[in-house]
């Protein structure tokens, strides 16, 4: 009797990326329940799946709005009839601003900004579109990525947004570091008086991150949460305690193609499939469900180097396995389609419609 | 006046992957001259560019045959009219073997194998195709990836290939580790008597690797060489001395989208563009040509975290830069098209036709 992974490999080839829709639906429901329980609007981040099909499942389960990380993702979601999109990224440059104006003519949008130069560009795009653009100020409360780092900068930027005739100040975008709820709340406390003095209100106070679901609601005044990875989960989420192995809904199906020695092997999934993403310092490049003691210690482009020395029984050439990747969001972005399964059967393919649309 | 990178960003968006065809042609010519000088057939590895357009430039310059790492790459090259393909990978599993048979009906092929189970599958596919398949034995002379590790295994596998009615023993596939020419020559010396005893001859003795161009011809008895990365080069090739900065023909065009502090910035190229490939332990995730002191210290999916503390002058929000990536082969695989430039002008786009075809 064939395993499901063997059926996937036979039908779609190896390597392939498969998802378990039963687990996907359970993960979607769990996120929705967590947001409902915390009194927060659920605005899932579609960068993880890049698929309108899965976004629609999230909306059907209660999500109100979606988050996109790129304009290309927002274009794809809009084209599929999805709306209320928040683009959590500074859109900069003539090419993106022209596309933003075109998209804004089709649908209402919220975008983030962390710099006056970004606000100026957005204002021009919105003016060209002839439709007001909602803008949230991205605040850095400890992650050290993008975002204004001081409350007074947040207030100044909110004022600049409100003063632009084509823009509306819509609120604040936060991506607190793990365990950073207190610092984030303090940042918000410091911003609020300045906003009030300017006669402004943060209608949206958006938090983000799947690991932050642990203390969802701990950021005082938050109105919504953006979680991406929780729809699939991965080794990284297992490592930080945000998911169990049975919550991982996406596997890379791969085949053992070489067994040069008793302790070495090669999978046909390398850095062009699993990606070299270290998952924040994990050991190895994925967890093989059937051979958890096997270590994917190194990758070439089409080779996953296996160290089988700790395995009680080692897989042979031709053995098909399922690998839980370090980081699902980058793995999904390698393939044009996900093989969907449900109840232990293959039910079809789901296009990764926004794959590669990094701009 | 706009820079070329600014023009690319304006016309094609940011991030984009651009190549300089003048440098590409010089790199192709340099590889051809090196192979000619060493008396070796040049069989470039198309995994780096995955593009029939560029493969045809290589053939026009004198390449005899091409190397593919996946069956999907070989299908694309065949579809574009290219021939004499060597697939340097164990093809395993019913899906691949059925496709191999279909491809073999269309064109003559050479594939590698390192295990009797692989040979058995190839024999079935070739029998189904009704056309003989040339098979080379992959030998591991120190890299520790795929390949038989002992000369007597190589001979036994050569015999098994020769005995299969649908297969022809075509020779040996080698991928010597850097500086491994002597060990590889010794391996070959140990294989030859066994082959001779079996009445077999290694018509192909194929070496590979761009860093190994340094001592091209040092493997005694080699007949051909497979080099992939040399068509573009990258930071990894610079680090090992195989290329100079001016030989790097592929850049990621990216834009500074955030400057949260005086020493921090963000590029709109993250792990979904530059990839997390560490390039064999390089510091950072790419070299910014215009700001060589800037360090791309960390990546999120759409964020390249910049440490600008060592820069005499820092780029502003909106500045467009060119990044030499750590590893071009995986970067090319992220995009559907390369923006081609020549003589400082944009001349068009080149499809990465085999992108994502990892099976």
Q: If classified by CATH, what would the architecture of the largest domain in chain A be?
A: Alpha-Beta Barrel
- What percentage of the residues of chain A does DSSP assign to strands (E)? 15-25%
N-to-C SSE series of chain A?
HEHEHEHEHEHEHEHEEHEEEEEEHEE
Number of strands of chain A: 17
Give the CATH H-level superfamily of the largest domain in chain A: Alanine racemase
CATH class of the largest domain in chain A: Alpha Beta
Q: What structural class do the secondary elements of chain A suggest?
A: alpha/beta
The chain pair forming the largest interface, with residue counts per chain, is: A-B, 69 and 69 residues
Radius of gyration based on Cα positions of chain A: 22 Å
How many H/I helices of chain A? 10
- What overall form of chain A do the CA principal axes indicate? elongated
Major β-sheet annotation of chain A: 9 strands, mixed
Mean pLDDT of chain A: 97
Kindly report the oligomeric state of this protein. homodimer
Number of domains of chain A: 2
Helical content of chain A, roughly?
25-40%
Distance between the termini of chain A: 45 Å
Task: Describe, in plain words, how this protein is organized in 3D.
Two copies of one chain form a homodimer. With 359 residues, the first copy, chain A, is an alpha/beta fold. In chain A, 31% of the residues lie in helices and 23% in strands. Chain A has helices spanning 4-12, 21-38, 52-60, 71-79, 94-106, 116-129, 151-163, 181-197, 235-239, 328-332; strands spanning 16-20, 41-42, 66-68, 85-87, 109-113, 133-139, 167-174, 204-208, 224-226, 250-258, 264-267, 287-288, 295-299, 304-307, 320-324, 337-342, 345-351. In chain A, helix 4 (71-79) packs parallel to helix 5 (94-106) and helix 7 packs across helix 8. Chain A is elongated and about 70 Å long. Chains A and B meet through helix 1, helix 5, helix 6 and strand 10 of A and helix 1, helix 5, helix 6 and strand 10 of B. Chains A, B: Keywords: Lyase. Chains A, B: GO terms for molecular function: D-serine ammonia-lyase activity. Chains A, B: This is D-TA family PLP-dependent enzyme.
């Amino acid at each position: 009797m064939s395993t499901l992974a063997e059926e996937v490999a036979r039908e779609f080839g190896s390597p392939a990326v498969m998802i378990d829709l039963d687990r996907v639906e359970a993960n979607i429901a769990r996120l929705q329940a967590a947001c409902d329980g915390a009194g927060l609007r659920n605005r899932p981040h579609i960068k993880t799946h890049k698929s309108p099909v899965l976004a629609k499942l999230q909306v059907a389960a209660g999500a109100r709005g979606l988050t996109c990380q790129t304009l290309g993702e927002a274009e794809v979601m809009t084209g599929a009839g999805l709306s209320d999109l928040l683009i959590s990224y500074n859109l900069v440059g003539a090419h993106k601003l022209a596309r933003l104006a075109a998209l804004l003519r089709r649908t209402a949008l919220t975008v983030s900004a962390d710099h006056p130069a970004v606000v100026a560009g957005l204002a021009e795009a919105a003016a060209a579109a002839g439709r007001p653009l909602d803008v949230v100020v991205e605040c850095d409360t400890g992650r050290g990525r993008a975002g204004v780092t001081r409350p007074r900068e947040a207030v100044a930027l909110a004022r600049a947004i409100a003063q632009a005739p084509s823009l509306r100040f819509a609120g604040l975008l936060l991506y607190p570091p793990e365990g950073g709820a207190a610092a984030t709340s303090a940042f918000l406390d410091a911003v609020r008086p300045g906003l009030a003095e300017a006669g402004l209100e943060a209608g949206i106070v958006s938090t983000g991150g799947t690991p932050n679901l642990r203390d969802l609601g701990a950021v005082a005044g938050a109105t919504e949460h953006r979680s991406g990875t929780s729809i699939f989960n991965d080794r990284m989420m297992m490592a930080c305690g945000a998911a169990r192995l049975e919550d991982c809904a996406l596997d890379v199906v791969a085949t053992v193609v070489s067994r040069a020695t008793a302790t070495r092997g090669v999978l046909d999934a390398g850095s062009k499939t699993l990606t070299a993403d270290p998952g924040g310092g994990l050991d190895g490049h994925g967890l093989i469900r059937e051979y958890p003691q096997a270590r994917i210690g190194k990758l070439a482009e089409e080779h996953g180097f296996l160290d089988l020395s700790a395995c009680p029984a080692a897989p042979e050439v031709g053995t098909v396995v399922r690998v839980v990747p370090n980081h699902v969001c980058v793995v999904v972005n390698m393939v044009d389609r996900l093989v969907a399964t449900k109840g232990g059967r293959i039910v079809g393919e789901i296009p990764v419609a926004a794959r590669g649309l990094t701009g």
